Amino acid sequence: MQIDTARYLKLDAAPVRLKDTLDILVTEHAFLPSVDEMLSDWVATIATPAFKLLRQQKGVQAGFCSIGTGTGLDALAAIETLGAARVGITDVHADVVDAAAGNIRKNLKNPDDIVLDAGFGDLLEPLRHSDSDAQPHYDLIYENLPNIPIDDAGKAAAARKSSGHIPPRTEAVPERLRRNLLALHYVALLKAKPFLTPDGAVLSLVGGRIPLDVFQEMGRLAGYRSEIFTYGWKIQTDPEEIIGGHLRQQEEGFGPYHFYRADRLATAFSGVSLETSGRDAHAIERLLAPDELSPEEALSTWKKGEVIGHTVVALRSTPV
Fold first, then answer.
1. CB of 63 closer than 8 Å to CB of 137
2. Quick check: 309 and 261 in contact, CB under 8 A?
3. Chain centroid to CA 49: how far?
């Protein structure tokens, strides 16, 4: 697929490090970027604005790693907006990583601009090195990982979008986090520490379908100091699958979870600046509380033709 770089990344001028048009190969195991409805697209709507704000506030993030990169668009966005020069990417399928690595290299004006670390497997394990001197370290580790557990690892491996669900995990996860579907995000925080530079941070992008205080508790329990860096919203991707998945989890005693009508979210966030959104997140959450839809209500509302969305937290965590 072809993507207009400046439009997708909302650049004020032509891209500096990326080609003007991105040529993106999407394998059968990767999510298709939502370029025609960018309010559904994580990279365009949530990640890239957070990257730009990080560049403005923290400067160049020369080392960048994406856990679960998909098509590699998140890494391309980081190269352009964060100034990343060493880039790590992982995903759970070999074909996804191979395609993402190819997407990154062929869409750079100068492929020699970056050092690329790439591997398929669980979280950061593909990048672990037995030689400590060869171990890569990153200023920013980014993750936008799935939430919904699936009991059968074989089904997860066979699914077209297997990265949309979490196969069984063996790590101990605090009960409140497990019940709020944050298990993989928590484990990712634990695994990230050896890969961070001394001033490095993890940026977790998570759908805000649960109370905001749970996110910062997750960081504390994982040994981090976490801040809600940005707070925004997006249209729910694959609503039947994702809302339905949350409904099934809630029926089993997890959650509760909530969604919103997209027009209500657009109104609530219309006067909110990106720079202050994290600071004001709890106030926005309280403002939206009367309009929360349970998964059952959200699914019913969507089936009637209304657009459903959810809030999104960009959680920036630094080790304590």
1. yes
2. yes
3. 12
Name 91's bridge partners.
120
* pLDDT tens profile 98-137: 999 999 999 999 999 899 999 999 999 999 987 877 889 9
Q: How do the domains of the chain map onto residue ranges?
A: 2-235+310-319
Residues 6+ apart with CB under 8 A from 118: 88, 89, 90, 97, 100, 101, 126
Architecture of domain 2-235+310-319: 3-Layer(aba) Sandwich (3.40)
3-state DSSP assignment of residue 213 = helix
CA atoms within 13 A on the CB side of 223: 9
Q: Which amino acid is at 158?
A: A
- The token pair at 273 is 């600046």
Using one digit for the tens of pLDDT, what is the confidence trace for 236-295? 988 999 999 999 999 999 999 999 999 999 999 999 999 999 999 999 999 999 999 999
